[in-house]
Amino acid sequence: MRSFTEQIISLGIFALLLIILIASPWLFGAWEMWYFWPFAVMIFTVGLLLGVRLLLSGDRQRSTRTGPPGRQALLWLPLPFLGYALIRSMTAPVFMDAERSMLLFLTPWLLAICILWGIKRSELRLTVALLGINFAALGIYGILNHCIAENAKVLWLDGFPQYQQGYLRATGSFFCPDHFAGALELGMCLALGFIMNRESPWSRRIPALILLAICIAGIILSKSRGAGLTVIVVGAAALVYGLRQWQWKTRWALRAGILLVSIITLFALWNSDISYMRRFRSYITIPQEGSRAERLEQLQARALRTCRGSMIAAAIRGWKTAPWFGIGPGMHKNTWFHFGPTPDGDREHGIWPSQPNNTLHSFEVHSDWVQLLQEYGVIGLVLFLIPLGGIFYLLVRTLNRAATATRNQLDRPMSRTGYSLLLAGILAIVAMGFHSLGDFCLQIPALTWLLAAMTACALAQVRRAA
Fold first, then answer.
1. Measured distance CA(258)–CA(26) in Å, rounded
2. What predicted TM-score, i.e. pTM, was given to this entire model?
């Protein structure tokens, strides 16, 4: 039995975690510093309260040595990267930008640790239910704001008009439609976890279907091309991982049927006249004139002329100046005017670069992976991929063993909800990992915290019996 003091501390931990996960996406994703810092302080406060509670309890079963594999993986695997990131941030030329970059890695890890050690199973189930409700509320607000007010406002502030030029794009509670779509991608992953679980009762599957419909509708209205491609990738991952509870004949029949329906649906959408598809088609129009090599060169030149292409190309030029250790955390925005222009200019002869890139300022690379490579170098990228790959492998291995037990009608190693959370966590990593190839969703604090929460909920299902 916990003492009264421990119960009060536990209540404080749970309440603060809920405030962080539910409120942060409603405050513009905690993008601005005056929203980011209060939430960061809350996360560190939760960590402090958890430490005090562990000291008061003296419970050796909470030790990491005897804890389940999920706890051990989350605690130890990220430490080399976090230590490296701390050292790099302390040596960066612009300390405040480096500090924010470091915290975008540290706070999600600490939040996940607090979820794994800080809350009970019943509180974990309530957290998941509230996350689902919150994802649905975010989607409904974005849809209504789009249909009624045409996204002129983001909550109580004026939206950015450039996102509404040419196509009206739903933004929800985020300033950028792509980040609104990123939040709904996580909601979609949570919904698919319950929908595709063979043992999910209809009392959970029906709300999950409603959540999935809301998320897909919000993504379509956001007209985010990256989110549209992410939906396809997540759908493919769901076919791979989500049907493993069925016998192989049934599993492959379901995959074939769902794949056929999906291809027909995508073909019909692609040839439709809805604005989302027009925006897609305008982006990938293939040149018709010239040889194959000339058309490929035209495509490459067109990609480099886009804002996203210019930012990524400049980041790669910056990375090449410090390939192993990177240019420093948070330094992309500060070195833009140096690396932004193409290197074909000649100051001595008065020749301007073919792309001076003096009409915009890149604060983020629009590719989280490229920005990680530019700012932390090859060493940082490798140190980051090791824990990510280890955690993903642990989740997939546990899912496979649980699915095998269901197929063979063996003793279930986890609850029905546990299997759904495992699948949702796997799909969430796939979604953010893919979308981040061409966007900076993980520079938005609320999205990193939501991803950390879903990953922690999945890791909480990993037991020695798995």
1. 34
2. 0.92
